[in-house]
Amino acid sequence: MIVIFENQDYATVIGSPAMPYFNRLASRFALATNFFANTHPSQPNYFMLTTGQLISDSDSFVGVVDVDNVVRQLVKAGKTWKSYAESLPSVGYIGGDVLPYVKRHNPFAYFSDVINNPLQIQNLVPFSQFQLDMAAGQLPNYSFIIPNQVHNAHDCPDGSAAENCPNAVKLAAADDWLRVHIDPLLANPQFQQSGLLIVTWDEASFSDTAHGGGRIAVILAGPKVRSGFQSITFYQHESVLRLSLEALGLTSIPGAGATAPVMDEFFQ
What we know:
The protein has about 270 residues and is an alpha/beta fold. Helix content is about 30%, strand content about 15%.
């Protein structure tokens, strides 16, 4: 399960009093301390996490993505998947932004394997479906969880633009969302068997261009994750792509994920 937040530096997040829950997870489970996003702006990083390619160099891509991707590989392997996007207007919605939902943060809404398949398109669901699936013991093998613009640390909690409130207010809203919605997952019997949660940020602030997209904080949590572990190994989003599929037993990994550094050190 991958949860992805927006546009914050590692140093802004780790140790922040505005994000006590996020930091508790980082202390309890495992933290990647040398992880860098691939580029600026946001959308190419989402594609790297799911295709192993940047696809575009902007947030304005509106085409169809027909390169190899996680959906193609999951379906081939007989695995289940869902994209849980907060504020998605309806199941199978592939239209444009309906704030606070923005399409550019939902890479699955661009994949030909999804939009041209009447069965797979039903796996684009509002985030409200997540708690229902968890309660019913029907979480898919692979989940991509997308908070909306007021809960992902991008915009202000009242829905106004990012510059209209202090950064700490945006971080606090994201942290509270994570605590309310993700903490129950960690106690869920289905998750406790062999679940893996990855909490990441798409990119750092635009002023941080190190290794393309700047240094970000990435947490791994689950029953097989090394407790209190901190990695100093250099990683980027393609390693999360590789891990998310190899953890499910897949051996065919799209794009740059196929040769990305493995993240085995995080596990017991």
